[in-house]
Amino acid sequence: MANSSWLSLSDALHAMLSSATPTTKKETLSVTDALGRITASNVFAQHNVPPCNNSAMDGYALRSKDGVSGASLIVTATVLAGDSHNPTVSNGQCVRIMTGAPVPADCDAVVIQENVHRDADTITLQTDVSELDNIRQTGDDIQQDSIILRRGRRLTPADMMLLSSVGITHIDVYPPLTVGLLATGDELTEPGQPLEPGQIYESNRAGVAALLAPLKVNLKHYGIAPDRPEALKRLFNLASEECDIIISSGGVSVGDADFVKPVLDELGSIDFWKIAIKPGKPFAFGQLGNALFCGLPGNPVSAYVTTEQLVVPLLRHSQGESNVSDAHRLTLKARISHRIQRRAGRLDFQRAVFTQEADGSLRVTPLAKQSSGVMTSFTAANCYMLIPADTATLEPGDLVDVQPFSLASVAQI
User: Fold this and answer.
1) CA 22 to CA 42: how far, in whole Å?
2) 33, 63, 244, 316: least surrounded by Cβ within 10 Å?
3) What residues does 354 pair with on adjacent strands?
C-alpha cells in the first residue's frame, strides 16, 4: 500500500497550483504572432458581425408582404457581396442577391433561387416567404463592444480568425515564462556522442521540451549535471537567477548518488517529495530562490508522465491561463479487455490502446510492457489506462478511465 506521507495526484497538483502566482505582466503582440499565448485582458468586439443585414443564400431580396406563393415580382437590380449601393425596392419588386451581399433597406426577406421560376426580368414565387427568411441580421454573430475572448484564454487558430473578423490586429497577452531544463547523472551522455561503457543517452530533456512546446515558454538548457553536489549547486543557483521554473530530471530517488533533494534542502525548500502514482513516485516540488522547482524521476516514462500530469498544468496556471485544475485532461470510459492483478496503493497510468467497437463503445487493452524505462510503451500506445489507487483486480469488461494521447488517436475496429 502507499505510504501515508505520499500525496495523491490531486493533492499534489492542488499544492503546486496554490504555490504558483500567475504572472500579471502584459505585452502587446500582433494577432499573427499570438497563437498559443494567454490573453491578458478581456477582448471586446470593435464591430458588429455581420456589419449589416446580409443574405445567407443566393436568391432574391424582397418585401415579405409580397412573399406569397404564386406572386410575380419584377427584378430591378442585382446586389453582389461587397456592393455598397442600396437600391430602392417598391411593392411588387425584388432584387437579385448573392450570398453575403447587403440586403437593401426596403427588403426584409430573401427567397432562395431554387424556390422561384424566372422568366427574363420576372420571377414567380413557388413558396411563401416570411420576414427575415435567409437573412443574417446585423450583429447576429457578434455585437459591437461585446466580450469575444475572456482574460486567461490560450489563443487557438479559431481565435485568430475570430479576432481578424472584427478587425483586431493587436492583442494584450501575458509574456512567456522562462523554464530551465537540466538532467542529472554520471551515466548520461548527449545523443550523437559515442557511448562509453555504462552510459546511456539522455532523452528526458527532449521529451519535456516537446511537451512544453505548445505552451510557448522560453526554454533555457543547462545540459547534464554530474552526480556531484557542488556541480548541482552551481547549476541550480544559476538557473534560479534566470528562470521562473526549473525542471530537472533524475537524482530525486534515495540512491547514494541522488543529490537533488539534499541540495534543494540546502539552497531552497521542498514542499513534497513523493506522490502516490505509478510511474512517477519520486517527484520533488519546491522553491529555488524566486523560481519554482520540479524534480522529475530519471526513468523516461516516469519523467514523461509527471511532466504531463503535474508540470504542464503548473505552467499553464503560472502563465495566467484560467480554470486549470486536476481535470485538465479529457477522460473517457472504456471496458478493459482482460484481467489485471496488481498491488494496490498508487494511481497507475498504464500505457494502453483503446479502440471503438461497432456499437460505439470503447475497449482498452494495456500493453504488456509497463516498465518505467520502456519508452516504446508510449509509442505503441494511444492512451493512459487509469487504475485507481485502491484497485487491485480488474476483470474483463470492467469500466476504467482512459486519457487519450490525442483526440485523433482512437483506433476503429
Assistant:
1) 16
2) 33
3) 364
* Residues near 213 by beta carbon (within 8 Å), at least 6 away in sequence: none
Domains of the chain, earliest start first: 9-23+175-318 (3.40.980.10), 27-49+147-173 (3.90.105.10), 54-136 (2.170.190.11), 332-412 (2.40.340.10)
Per-residue pLDDT of 238-278, as tens digits, reads 999 999 999 999 877 655 446 788 888 889 998 998 999 99
Distance CA 304, CA 374 (A): 11
Cα–Cα distances in Å, from 91 out to 62, 99, 130, 136? 9, 23, 15, 22
CB 67 within 8 A of CB 109: yes
Close Cβ partners of 288 (under 8 Å, ≥ 6 residues apart): 236, 239, 240, 246, 264, 267, 268
Q: Burial level of 287, CB count in 10 A (0-12/13-18/19+)? A: middle
The cell for 241 is 537567477
Query: In the β-sheet with 72-79, what is the strand arrangement from edge to edge?
Result: 109-112, 59-62, 93-97, 72-79, 122-125, 116-119
Contact (CB, 8 A) for 61 and 89: yes
β-strands 245-249, 188-189 pairing: unpaired
The count of residues in the chain is 413
What is the per-residue pLDDT across 323-337, written as a single tens digit (0 to 9) for each?
Answer: 887 556 889 999 999
